[in-house]
Amino acid sequence: GRNDPNKQVSDAEDLLSRGVDIFIACPYQAPTLMNVVPQYQDKGIPVVIYDRRLTDMSYATAFVGNDDVALGRICGEEALKLLPDGGKVAILQGTPEIGRASCRER
Questions:
Q1: Rounded distance, CA 51 to CA 24, Å?
Q2: Coil, strand or helix: which one is 23?
Q3: 13 neighbors 36 (Cβ within 8 angstroms)
Q4: What is the rounded distance in angstroms from the CA atom of residue 59 to the CA atom of residue 105?
Q5: Which residues contact 45 (CB under 8 A, 6 or more apart)?
Q6: How high is the pLDDT of residue 90?
């Protein structure tokens, strides 16, 4: 999708019309990609999502990626070890729309 959620959806629609047997994607913006992913499920085409989750993962046949909640917990535990008496903590996160950053903050 070249960092363009609408292009990613357009590409996904094009692939669907070509009759692919499996759809593998890393959602640039999950809410936008959800406009087309259910159509794959309706046609019985497996959907493999990697790196970034869909807003509704029930449409994914499989997911390949990190457990972002666990990642956030581990970062917090390391911060506590390094700053046992407390301190100022800065968190620089990615694009909030992607969803991974909010999982890591839990």
A1: 11
A2: strand
A3: yes
A4: 25
A5: 16, 20, 21, 22, 23
A6: 86
Q: What is the pLDDT of residue 36?
A: 96
Q: CA 75 → CA 8, 81, 100, 104, distances in Å?
A: 32, 10, 14, 9
pTM of the complete model beyond 0.85 = no
Order across the sheet with 62-64: list the strands.
23-25, 47-50, 62-64
Residues near 100 by beta carbon (within 8 Å), at least 6 away in sequence = 52, 53, 66, 68, 94
User: Tokens in use for 69?
Assistant: 């909640």
For 76, what's the count of Cα atoms within 13 Å in the CB-facing half-sphere?
Answer: 10
Residue 79: name the closest of 69, 90, 95 by CA.
Answer: 90
45 phi/psi in degrees, rounded to 5: -90, 125
- Residues of the chain with confidence (pLDDT) below 70: 1-2, 94-106
